């Protein structure tokens, strides 16, 4: 059985020159970071939730979050469970009083978009961090990342999801 380590969501970055969004997770109490390339819609959904910005009309993850709450389920945690051929795998762990736990397979980007809305913990299998984690030893790197994230947040304030256009997907957007 795998060991799962708690992580925090550092934020969303844009990888240049491809302009591909990357979600960055950081091991709590450690220096390893896990980059996960995601689609622009999921990047927008996560960034808006991290900033506490509510769109005028609910996005897909907002809608699903509301359905979860209306059905009296609790999203206990999101678990990034594996990495195979460049594709990450995750699970949503739901609880409901008086019922057996429910585990649903999901893409990490969708799962974390829900976790940001519902306050669920996010964990990553230790073997995934061992395989794909990046060790950042210099704290100034983290400060630079925070500045880059702030610039991205400012960018998000000025854009509309339609600005991303239809059909633009990174080869690994199925992550």
Compile the SSE list and pairings.
Elements: E1 4-15, E2 20-27, E3 32-37, H1 40-51, H2 60-70, E4 74-84, E5 87-95, E6 102-106, H3 108-118, E7 121-125, H4 126-132, E8 134-135, H5 139-157
Parallel strand pairs: 4-7
Antiparallel strand pairs: 1-2, 1-7, 2-3, 3-8, 4-5, 5-6
Helix pairs in contact: 1-3, 2-3
What is the C-level CATH assignment?
Alpha Beta
Mean pLDDT reading: 86
Task: Give the N-terminus to C-terminus distance in angstroms.
Answer: 23 Å
Question: What's the SSE pattern?
Answer: EEEHHEEEHEHEH
What's the Cα radius of gyration?
A: 16 Å
Structure overview:
This is BFN domain-containing protein. Residues 4-136 form the BFN domain. Helices cover 34% and strands 33% of the residues. It has 175 residues and is an alpha+beta fold. The protein has one domain (4-161): Bifunctional nuclease domain (Roll), CATH 3.10.690. Strands 6-5-4-7-1-2-3-8 form an 8-stranded mixed sheet, sandwiched between helices. A hairpin with a 4-residue loop joins strand 2 and strand 3 (32-37).
Structure described in brief:
With 175 residues, this protein is of the alpha+beta class. It has helices spanning 40-51, 60-70, 108-118, 126-132, 139-157; strands spanning 4-15, 20-27, 32-37, 74-84, 87-95, 102-106, 121-125, 134-135.
Could you name the key traits of this structure?
175 residues; alpha+beta; Bifunctional nuclease domain; 8-stranded mixed beta sheet; 5 helices; 8 strands; 33% strand; globular; disordered C terminus; Bi_nuclease_dom
